[in-house]
Every structure is written in structure tokens, then in C-alpha cells.
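Continuing the series of single-chain predictions for the mutant panel. This is the parent chain; the variants come on the following pages.
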Amino acid sequence: MTSGTTDVAGAPRVPVPAHVDAPARGSAPDLAWLDWLRVLAIVGVVTIHVVGSTALAPWARTSRLGWLAIWLDIGFVFVVPVFVMISGALFLDPARFRGTGDFLRRRALRLLPALVVWHLVYWAFRVVYLDQEIGVRDFLESTVTGRLYPHLYYFWVVLGLVVVTPVLVPWVATAPRRSLLLAGLCAASMPVLTVALRNGLEAAPVWVETPWTWWLFYLGLYLLGSALRDVVLRGVALVAAGTAAVLLGALLTWQWRNPAAPGWLQVVSPVSYYGLGVHVYAVLVLLVARALVRPGGVGRVLARPAPARVGRVLGAATLGVFCSHLLLVPVVAGIPALGGDAAAGSSVQLVARVACVLVISYTATLVLRRVPVVRSVL
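Parent structure:
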């Protein structure tokens, strides 16, 4: 694709400067790593929510089952930051941007129906299946405070980032990668420093989170996704990044809710989506995935046309899996053969629960995405 102000259809586009390589839009080999990374991330999201009750059990750190749950839980703690960086890599790509109106219209049609429908679904689920009393006022209050169900706040994060994207893309199109990287690091330092300050002060500062401001804490990661999109590590750099990711993941797993972890570590780098360690962990995972899943990479088979098409289908279904899987978690946990309780009774039960929720939610999503109206919320 050549740079310019219009594409072949004549739609206005952001100019792509000479120093920026514009990849072919929709090219499967170019985007295969992002599709497969989305699949990895949604597997992580499902795993976290399935094993969470077992990882939180009082006996977790004194049993093999508990340690397995903790490793699975915190080992995937990179998933939300990675999802945000994936969005940045896609939405902030000037070569894919066809104008503010087109971008906002497509994103609104993708996100707003899903936001409304899934908030109503989980309200009904809590009232009918979980037998909880939640009136209209409580429903609205829990919606705007992100407490209706654990994962629904993420809709507001993405919506906020989408709204500011048309303002960012023209700058991204002309800024050198170094400037974009610096801006991303500076913005990412805001939640990192805020959390560290809050944890370190006896009188914690006021902490305000609303649907209109959640995106601010993820803006840095959003920019970093764009800045790092075309950074391909090789050789020693790739080995170092992979090793660092494994070691940092192990450190975070050991640190989480561990009384033996030093206080300064809990202050400076808490195990939180806003924490320094989790930010670095997510960046390393993104860089390693980018380096591996490409022609010539160790995972090059995933970038070949046929596997790339599979990755694209599975990647496109991640919204549906993300939205629906928590409906299955308490249902699957209640099956007697799988423990019949919130916490699993064995490692086999724990892994089987993860597999059940993944397979059912993915299968249902892939099938229902063939239904035109239903597809709009999946």
C-alpha cells in the first residue's frame, strides 16, 4: 500500500509518512501474532476466573492444588494489559484508519450493543441463578462502579480509549517510534506511581474510578501497543526477554498475597493491573509473542495461511468468550464430578473446570456468531 491521503475507494485516511512502513491491510501473516496473542489472552482470562476461588482458599499456599491454582492465576496476570496493547496495535495503526466517523461508527456498533446486553444478562443471572436481590437502583449503581460482575468494567476501558483514538492517530502517524514509546511510558507511569503512592502512604490519597476515567489508567499501555507493534526481537534480545518474562512471572506468583514478601516490594510493585511488575510482564509477553509468531520465527507455523485463518476466527470470537464465560464458572463448579464447590477438590478437577468453561464458551460463541442479530453482541 502506498502512502497518501486516500485509499483505493477514495475514503480519507491519515497520511502515512515516508519513514513508516504501512503493512497491507488485513494481511493474515502480518496480524497472525495479534490473533494468536488474543487467543492466549482469553485463555488466560478464563483460567483466572475459573481457578480464582481455589487460589484464594486459606489453605492454598500449603497444598499442591493451591499452588497450581496460584500459578495458573498469577501466571496469566498479564492478560488485561496485553488486551489493551493489542487494541492499541490495531486501533492506532494509521494504515487501517479510515476517518473519525467510520472508526467511531464501527466501534460503537461493536461495543455499545454488547455493553447494554451483557450488563442486563448478568443482572438477570445474579437475580435468577444466584438468587440475589438487585433492584434497578442497585443495578445502575453497580454498573457505573464496575461491581455488577468482575469483568464488565473492561467495556468502559475500551470505550474510553476508542473515543480518544481519532485524536491520537494523526499524531501516531507522524511521530517517530521513540516519541510514541516515550509517551506510552510516561502515561503508563501514572497508574504505577499512583498505586505505589497509595500503598506507601498511611493516609491514602483519594482514589476515584468511574466509567468515564477508567481508560486513563490504560492509556500508556494503549500507546505502548502501537509503539511496540513492529518491534521484532531476535537472538540474545529474544532469549533475554523470554527469560525475564518467566522470572518475573515467577516472582509475581510468589509475591501475591504472600506474607513473606518484603513490604517495599508490595508498595513499589504490587500484583495488580496497575502495578509496575505486571506492566513489565505484559510488555515482555507482547514482545516475545511478536518475535515468535512470524515468518522465520519459532512459531512460524502459526503465521502460515491456514493456521492464521484459524487464529483469526478464534481471535474474533474472544469478545463473546470474554462476555459469556463467567456465566459458566459457577455452573461448572457446582457439578458434583468437578467438586461441587467454589474451590476445586483436586488438580484434575481444577484443570477439567478450565477446559469445560473454555470449550463450552468458545463453542457457543462460534456457533452463535453465525446468527446475524446475536453476532452483534459476540
